[in-house]
Design goal:
Helices cover 63% and strands 4% of the residues. By secondary structure, it is mainly alpha-helical. The chain is globular and about 60 Å long. It binds calcium ion (2 copies).
Length: 415
């Protein structure tokens, strides 16, 4: 196995390792403090809603009491932590909650979850069915919308997938292969990535009716669920969502300005990495990166596109170097171009190289770069994945690789 082949293996190991670490860290952080804490509020509420089916008012009154240990995945705990509304005893995220869950490590909730009436939900669904596509869709919806847990999982996967996976994702949704997805097919995906049998049973009873029950369903299929979703619309939705989150992250780190300084970009790069390790990177930055240079939104977007294509990058890197050695900036640039079809700007490349080059040889080894990038890419996915969701994307990936293999012919070497 060549160096970059090992890198791919290491990358997979690192992702697993990081996930395990994160999961452990999350458990450590929330475990003792869960009851009576902000997160505990949601957990206790959710758990009791599900288990005892008691009225929500009684649940909220009982928030401070001890609760049995809930059997919830870390990702579900994260969903409940950020979800700010409850309808029919189920917690939901608003579109604003979803964006916050991507951008923020945790939410410091000062208010209780809002209990929605049927009338309020109807008005949200009406608004969602009339919404126009765009890169401000979720921000326009704000708190005026409902996102279910399974949709949250679905949206998270969209954020970190390369665009080559969009077509396959659509085809998997389009069960009967008629080039459009209807509401019934969309709900099947929800069952695929749903967390448990109990959850699926609930979904069936509440969602098999004619009407739509969440903002995404209303947006894709209309208020009565009668519309069909075409690939073009699906692709646009995925692109817009990626762009919307990128724009918000850019504005967060540029402090609302049109460009971000190179140190802001470095801060964004290191945002989701292990804090204990970061001081050495800041030291690198202080020593090597000149002040007064900035990065535009387009340069930032190109880097985001690249970070969603890391596996393709590893593959193209292997083709570019073909040997067991760290890579210089020129080779790195070329591999990025092959993997994404786009160039990274000089400022972005230079920042990446100077920040992550730990041994000062002006090259990046896989250890120097990929360890940090895998953390970076995981973003809101930093908890252990659902088996359903990873199974779905594993299938998407397998199909992508099969296509790549056909395209590359004999030159193919699996990573
Ligand atoms: Ca279909
Ligand atoms: Ca180096």
């Amino acid at each position: 196995m060549s160096s970059w082949g090992r890198l791919a293996a290491a990358l997979r190991g690192a992702v697993r390792g990081n996930r395990a670490l994160r999961t452990a860290a999350l458990r450590g952080a929330v475990g003792p403090a869960v009851v009576g804490s902000v997160l505990g509020t949601g957990l206790v509420c959710y758990h009791r809603c599900r288990v005892s089916q008691r009225p929500v008012s009684a649940v909220f009154a009982a928030e401070e009491q001890e609760a049995p240990t809930p059997q919830l995945s870390p990702r579900k705990m994260r969903f409940i932590q950020f979800a700010s509304v409850v309808y029919d005893q189920e917690p939901y995220m608003t579109p604003r909650d979803f964006l916050y869950s991507i951008m923020l490590e945790k939410v410091d909730r000062k208010l209780k979850k809002r209990l929605l009436t049927a009338q309020e939900v109807n008005s949200m669904l009406r608004a969602a069915s009339a919404a126009q596509p765009g890169t401000d869709l979720f921000r326009t919806w704000g708190d005026n919308g409902l996102i279910s847990y399974t949709e949250y999982l679905f949206l998270l996967t969209i954020l970190t997938k390369p665009r080559t996976g969009f077509r396959i994702a659509f085809q998997m949704l389009d069960v009967d292969g008629n080039e459009q997805v209807d509401k019934k097919e969309f709900l099947k995906l929800k069952k695929i990535i749903g967390s448990s049998k109990a959850r699926v049973a609930t979904a069936e009873t509440t969602e098999d009716g004619e009407a739509v029950s969440t903002s995404l369903q209303a947006y894709f299929f209309g208020r009565k669920g009668e519309n069909k979703l075409k690939y073009q619309e699906f692709h646009r939705f995925m692109e817009d969502l990626q762009a919307e989150v990128q724009e918000m992250e850019f504005l967060q780190f540029s402090k609302g300005m049109d460009t971000m300084r190179r140190e802001d970009f470095a801060e964004w790069l290191l945002h989701y990495t292990n804090e204990e390790d970061n001081e050495i990177y800041w030291e690198n930055m202080r020593k090597k990166i000149p002040a007064g240079q900035s990065i535009t939104f387009d340069e930032f977007k190109a880097f985001c596109l690249f970070s969603n294509n890391l596996e393709d990058f590893v593959f193209s890197m292997k083709m570019v170097t073909g040997a067991n050695r760290p890579v210089g900036m020129a080779q790195f640039r070329r591999a990025v171009k092959i993997a994404t079809g786009h160039e990274l700007s000089e400022s972005v490349l230079d920042t990446v190289f100077k920040l992550f080059d730990m041994d000062g040889d002006n090259c990046l080894s896989h250890k120097e770069f990929m360890g940090v990038m895998t953390d970076r890419v995981l973003r809101g996915l930093k908890v252990q994945p659902q088996s359903g969701i990873s199974g779905y994307w594993k299938c998407v990936k397998r199909e992508t690789l099969t296509g790549a293999k056909e395209a590359l012919g004999n030159g193919w070497c699996p990573i």
